[in-house]
Amino acid sequence: MIHILITFIALTLPLTSFANVVGTDVQNFNPTSDGVGYISMHASKTLDPGILNLGWFFDYSKNMLPYFDNGGRNDSIRYLDFHAGLGITKDWDIGINVPYVQGQTVNSSSQVTSVVDKGASEIRLNTKYRFWNNEDSGLAVVASTNISRLEDDPYTGHNPGPTYNIELATDTMVEKLALAFNIGYRFRNPGDPVTQIPEIKPIKNQFIASLGGSYPLGESLHGIIEIFGSRPSSKYDGNTYLQLSSLEWIGALKYNPLTNLAVYGGGGTKLITGSATPDWRLLVGMNWTLGPLWGGKTEEPQEVVVVPKEPVSTFLAEEESGEVTVDPQDFAQEPIKEKQTFRLHSLLFEFNSDKLQKVSYEFLDKFAEYLKRPPELKKLVIQGFTDSVGSDVYNKKLSLKRAQSVASYLIKKHQIPAARIQTQGLGKAHPIADNATAEGRDQNRRVEFKVTRYKEY
Description:
The protein has 457 residues and is mostly beta strands. The chain has 5 helices and 19 strands. Strands 1-2-3-5-6-7-8-9-10-11-12-13 form a 12-stranded antiparallel β-barrel. Strands 15-14-16-19-17-18 form a 6-stranded mixed β-sheet. The chain is elongated. The relative contact order is 0.13. Mean pLDDT is 78; it is low at 1-24 and 297-324.
């Protein structure tokens, strides 16, 4: 699949800022290349190693160019943004965006003439590294560059150099609400003023910031709101009617018809009449993830939660009083009780499949040794769970097949009596985390084991 990314880059580079605000470089709306969490904002999470994200967004903006007398604004622009992101390591990914202008119209004599006709307006390269995270929050640094492909853009000047951006991205969960905040600085290398448009001076360095939230509205459906803006870092010569700051918002719905596919639709409007802020904009788009392109899920087995009570349906209410964390290597020391529930976090199967990944076997081998300890095993219930993406029928079928796959391994490899094992596929029922975030969906894709023995110690 790596050839898909190579082909994408090869096709886009010959065509004539990456933070979510470009300032005055024609547009302010810029989707992230990794498609993680939001639309134009950065979440702290990165793409997993070998995961490739491909996507596009269509943006129609009305009245975003400045005017220089009382004639008012009457312009529009249509953009297609093609992007690709690739996870390199656990906390590091890279990406590329190529915004393509489909067309621009200017119907007012009081406005600047069209800055671009058709074609790629710039190339944006970016990289993100997450340096801290816990269960609900994270921090990442994002570095990026804008390479303009416009000639004599009055906002960037004649023959400008690249623009460099550095941002800090943080996010957290407040119950079901996912919140994110980005703040950064843009280092611009403006070119010489474009003499035929003396009213506009090339923009210099800027502060950039954005704030957003995502909230689940139903199964596989989330609402997203983002506010983003920029302001000059210093005053400079040149009188212009163009307001140098920008501030606008967008609202959108995100729908996941499949685990690896997200589609978006929404719009927004200006909060101030600033640089490149339209009266309103409409947007639609999608992100499609592929892979992993190499390896697979290579992390060590994650921690297992041992709950000395049952049933699972009451587990969440008993977390504070009954939850103990145990490493998979410590099953030999785990006290034996008559009834216990073991929860294995994280998806340890091949994507969209019931095939166990190799990293699962070590845990299951240790768990089988624990099951063989006295007193004798009376019943083992293996329950499979999924996230909220997809239909109920699909998820119940997949979760059952995964539970059966685990049971088959324990029976064939470790001779656990098949008559004492029951498998259940509960699909998206009983989530233990918020399906609105990638981290939450990772936790909800899990297997739980309910162990009952003949005698209580």
